[in-house]
UniProtKB/TrEMBL annotation:
<feature type="domain" description="MAM">
    <location>
        <begin position="5"/>
        <end position="134"/>
    </location>
</feature>
<dbReference type="Pfam" id="PF00629">
    <property type="entry name" value="MAM"/>
</dbReference>
<protein>
    <submittedName>
        <fullName>MALR1 protein</fullName>
    </submittedName>
</protein>
<dbReference type="InterPro" id="IPR000998">
    <property type="entry name" value="MAM_dom"/>
</dbReference>
<dbReference type="InterPro" id="IPR013320">
    <property type="entry name" value="ConA-like_dom_sf"/>
</dbReference>
<dbReference type="GO" id="GO:0016020">
    <property type="term" value="C:membrane"/>
</dbReference>
């Protein structure tokens, strides 16, 4: 069966990102924070929280790493659906996959430039015969 793990950042303890407090550059904020757009979450809620890359470290990059996911098979595919906002200043947003037998992160999806300054949604499907992180 399918099991969804919803991560909305309303609490600091989002299970998908176990080391969130240790990720430099990322802050948890909402549209009322006075830090510029976006001024609401994808549902138009001004008080709902999302993750944002701190403007103080641009134009450098910052990564978010998930916890470890178990291998997929025909019964258990992994689908990750996420909302994202890219401003013209921040450039590119990439999703990478790291299998536990590999040292490198493989880029599996990226977006830049054409969908600026609006909330977009994307779903990626992951197949891996071993444990992995995204």
């Amino acid at each position: 069966g399918s099991s969804w793990n919803n991560c909305d950042f309303e609490t600091n303890l989002c299970k998908v990102f176990p080391k969130l407090d240790l990720q430099p550059g990322w802050i948890r904020r909402n549209g009322q924070s006075g830090m510029g757009p976006p001024y609401s979450d994808p549902n138009g809620n001004e008080s709902a929280y999302f993750l944002s890359l701190s403007s103080e470290i641009q134009p450098s990059s910052a990564a978010l790493r998930t916890n470890v996911f178990l291998p997929t098979d025909e019964e258990h595919l992994c689908q990750i659906r996420f909302h994202y906002w890219v401003s013209q200043m921040s450039g590119m947003f990439m999703v990478g996959l790291q299998k536990h037998s590999e040292d490198t992160v493989t880029n599996i999806w990226q977006v830049s430039g054409e969908l600026w300054n609006q909330w977009n949604v994307h779903t990626i499907t992951i197949n891996s015969t071993e444990k992995y992180e995204v």
